[in-house]
Structure formats: structure tokens, C-alpha cells
Predict the 3D structure of the following.
Amino acid sequence: MKTKTFAGIPKKYATLEKSKIVLIPVPYDYTGTWKKGSKKGPKAFLSASEHMELYDIETNSEVYKRGIYISYPPISNYSFSSKKMIEKVYDITKKYLFKKKFVTLIGGVHSISIGSIRAFGEKYPDMSILHMDAHTDLRPTYNGDPYNHACSMYEASKKYPIIQIGIRSMNILEKRYIQNDNIFYFHEIYQNDLWMKKAIQRLSKNVFISIDIDVFDPSIAPSTGTPEPGGFFWYEILKFLKMVFENKQIIGFDIVELLPNEKDFSTDFLSVKLYYKLLSYKYELIYSPL
């Protein structure tokens, strides 16, 4: 996988030296347990980016001019065990963090977050995690593997506040690991926006965001490994995320579990638009805490 620049932006905005933003592709899906293919997610994401308008209407901005550098080569799919992959993600994320870049990742399965969260936690020990997902991902192990995508938040939950949004599927054993005041089940929030302020108040100042594509309703984002009925629609999720960016210091984010479908590119494009929107919120909104 080699794309010259994100979204075809001019090379002068895509060098490491001049870019504020680093994008780390992680085409890894070895720990997938149902539909495999999210290893193709980063490639599909970058391909879709080439068809996106670079002007964001809502923020009246062209955030790509802040510079977006694609880390290369990507972390390959089967060259590493899941443990080795996570160590590699940690090393690369840490390298760019300490170059003072705004680090973002695109997966791949949700397991990649274990490595990136380790790196962010070293730089920001007071951080919290905004985890947007259909699933809690709090199993200590799954199929004997502590690095399975179903375990992506377990390690972090022992160290940091994790505010989980949009949850609508979990194993009963995971109930012992949830942070009860920090979980927002979708059936409880879908008809009432009052939860948004409550969720934001539970986040610390520094926030890492992890978004699994299956947090969206599968009617608008069908191309993911474990789609669940229900979930957010586009403007619902943007309304909340905009409030988060206005009220908290976002230190980085990942978007995971895009599993491309050769007959339907809508989820690929949604993922790219979401990524670009988050960057626009990061750099173009006025920080004004509640």
C-alpha cells in the first residue's frame, strides 16, 4: 500500500517536517473473529480520500494546509504476531508523539488501539479515553488471546477513565469490568441529547478518541466486521464530537474496523469524511470548556 499523499494534497503539505498531523495506517486484521478483511481498510480509506473535497463547509476551513503526513511503510498484516503488532504500533506512535505531532491512526482491527493507547498514556498520564463503539471490548482474553479486538479496551480500563458511547452489545462477563458511571448504552441515549454534556463532564482535560466504525447504524456504515443493529447517524455523532472538541483537548484519535466492500464504497467515504471532520474540529474550533 503506497498512496503519495492523503487526499491527493500537494506534496508541500505532506512532508513530515512541515506537517502538524501524522496518519499511521495499520492494515492488520489477524485478530478478527468473524468477517476478515479490515486489513484492506487503510488502503480503501486512502483511496476514498482522493475523491473528497478539501474545503469543510461547517468550519469554513481547509485543514489539510496544517499538513498531513502518512507514515510509511504501514504495519503489515501477517508479518507480526498480535503482540508484536501492538509493540510496533506503540513504537511508531511514540516516535511521532515525541516529535510533537498530532498522531492519528486508521485500522485494521481494534486491537491496534492497545499499542497507541500505551504510547499516548506515557506522554499524557492524566488522559481519559472516549471510546465510541457498538461493543465494550473489555474481555481480558478472547480465544486465548489478550490482544484480540474484543480485548482492545481492557488494559486501558485498568489505568484510565474510559467513557464508552453507543454500546449495544456485550458479554455478561464484561459487566465486571465496565466503569459504571462512564458507559452510555445506546438504548438509553438515542432519544435524548442530555447525555452529551454528562459524558463530556466525565472526560479529563486530555482525551484520546477511539472510534469503531460499528458505532454507526449499519444502514449508513455497513462495511465493518461486526455490524450491530442500531447506532448513530451522521449528524448525531458530529453534534456530540463537535462538543467534545470544543470542551476538551484532543490529543489524538484512531478510526478502526473499516472492512471494505468492493460493491459499496459508502463506508470508505464515511470514514474519510469523519477523519477530515475531526481534524477540522481539532484545528478550526474555538476551545471553550463548559
